[in-house]
Design brief:
Two copies of one chain form a homodimer. In chain A, about 60% of the residues lie in helices and about 10% in strands. Chain A is mainly alpha-helical and about 150 residues long. Chain A has a single domain, classed as Arc Repressor Mutant, subunit A. In chain A, strands 1-2 form a two-stranded antiparallel sheet. In chain A, strand 1 and strand 2 form a beta hairpin. The longest helix of chain A is centred in the C-terminal third of the chain and has 21 residues. The N and C termini of chain A lie far apart (about 40 Å).
Chain lengths: ~150, ~150
């Protein structure tokens, strides 16, 4: 399948890392959405499941910070995952304002299936990168993510 | 300035290129917005100016395709740039449904100033990458962007 019948690059934009990051992310996330269409999981919902799985008892606000989204957005997202029976909110006795998030067995199972599909989507979409390019890319992206600004 | 007081990574997510792309883009675009706050130009508006500058006479639909956004979104965006006096829509005599976009002198000037700030923002934010890493990153991201899916 081909795409972009007409191509209009800007030399200024092509030299910017931000523009290339955005456009590469759009390519990857479009394919991610196609791969997980039947699971009805967006990249964001998938990431939320992954983070709760890795950190059972995580608070909503810690999850929001990790995902880089607003507190209002996280509440709607957890409502959605709770409504599907994937996540539960457990009260924290020591702190009444806080709720600890946990995956249910159905959430664990849905995450496991989705992770397999996501890994297959990346292997297929990014098959043109060799192992060295893949590693270099992840290492440079992590350097950007974790620097102090 | 430090950020992310609490850090909760997921080993599954850290190994995915899509997640690293998204998080790196969020870091870069947050800094971009700070750098261009006084110009009131989002990454998307800036990219639109860059593309119209590189391709005077570009149609709205070609610009929408290049930016990967919906036609409804592009109309609002061009209204905004036209309202600020940066862009004009010129009718195309051969095709009444089409309008050719062009920067005004004020748009050229605003773009030139913004481009200088964006290049300074990237040099500052990404100063930890050496020239080889920068080139490798752009080349791998373009490989992802331009592959057939």
């Amino acid at each position: 399948m081909t795409k972009i019948p007409e191509h209009h690059p800007s030399p200024d934009l092509e030299g910017l890392i931000g523009y290339n990051l955005k456009r590469a992310y759009v390519t990857v996330s479009d394919d991610f959405r196609r791969a997980l269409k039947h699971d009805n999981l967006s990249p964001r919902l998938f990431s939320a499941l992954a983070l709760v799985k890795a950190h059972p008892g995580l608070s909503q606000s810690a999850l929001a910070r990790q995902l880089g989204i607003e507190r209002s957005g996280i509440v709607a997202m957890i409502d959605e995952l709770e409504g599907r029976g994937y996540v539960i909110r457990k009260p924290v006795p020591q702190d009444r304002r806080r709720q600890a998030l946990q995956l249910t067995p159905a959430g664990e199972e849905a995450y496991k299936i989705a992770l397999g599909k996501v890994q297959a989507h990346e292997a297929r979409l990014l098959g043109g990168l060799d192992a060295g390019q893949r590693e270099a890319l992840i290492s440079i992206l992590q350097k950007i993510r974790y620097q102090k600004t």
